[in-house]
Design brief:
This protein has helices at 10-18, 23-51, 58-80, 86-118, 121-148, 151-178, 186-218, 237-250. By secondary structure, the protein is mainly α.
């Protein structure tokens, strides 16, 4: 991250101060994630109640209660981080990164609950872990690429890499699942593939949010209210020469 500087990511600086990454933009994004996660969590809880909360292991209870706590915190951030202050801006920028990770993983919690209900959790878990591991690798590669290369090069190659990554994951999943009994459940297969694409896309998009959050904390020029830059007075070189001649004549 040492190679990041305020001149290298001028496009992100514009988005922070005038575009998608402003305080209002962050709050709107968190609200959309809140609705998305709330729908998935509602489905997850419905399946959990059909199984029976007492039957679930303690780890799953902690995950479900933790999801509810994070949603409550998320709505509080949306409601109270309104004013245009640097502290609110930093809190929202970090929250955007963290809640993007959360929203990306929410579908897999729901799918895991479905597999617990069907009794195929132990069989399906390796496939879910494979998807998550693949998404993490793609996410790290995009983040390294975003830090090392200039903004223009990153934007020119981003779409191609996204589709290559998604195509590779779909081929791997289809090949593995076609050799397994789980391929018979076509609805589960399609749901897993759809959320896998969403998962990778969200992780790729989160790279920009990570870089933006880093720049907000490290560079004052990226702040919501950047400090005014000192204006240097222009000095005519001819006047400087005249002053030097006068000094010599006095001597």
């Amino acid at each position: 991250m040492k190679k990041i500087n305020d001149k290298k990511f001028s496009n992100i600086q514009y988005e922070i101060q005038h575009g998608r990454l402003t305080i209002s933009g962050n709050r709107l994004y968190l609200l959309s994630l809140f609705i998305y996660s709330l729908v998935l969590l509602g489905i997850t809880y419905r399946v959990a109640y059909s199984i029976g909360l007492n039957v679930l292991q303690k780890e799953w209870k902690v995950i479900l209660y933790g999801e509810v706590s994070l949603l409550i915190l998320q709505i509080l951030l949306i409601l109270f981080c309104r004013t245009k202050r640097t502290f609110n801006f930093k809190v929202l920028s970090v929250s955007r990164v963290l809640y993007t990770y959360k929203a990306a993983l929410d579908p897999f919690i729901m799918i895991a609950m479905f597999t617990i209900d069907d009794g195929t959790f132990s069989t399906y878990t390796p496939f879910l872990l494979l998807i998550i591991f693949t998404g993490i690798i793609v996410h790290i590669l995009f983040l390294i690429n975003g830090v090392k290369k200039k903004e223009k090069k990153l934007l020119s190659k981003r779409n191609t890499m996204i589709w290559i990554s998604i195509l590779f994951l779909c081929i791997v999943l289809t090949t593995i699942l076609s050799k397994n009994v789980l391929f018979q459940d076509i609805n589960m297969l399609l749901m897993t593939l759809a959320f896998s694409i969403v998962f990778i896309a969200m992780l790729i998009g989160n790279c920009e949010f990570i870089i933006a959050a880093y720049c907000i904390f490290c560079y004052p020029s990226f702040a919501v209210n950047p400090p005014p830059q000192k204006k240097l007075q222009y000095v005519n070189p001819k006047n400087q020469r005249k002053k030097k001649k006068r000094k010599k004549n006095r001597r």
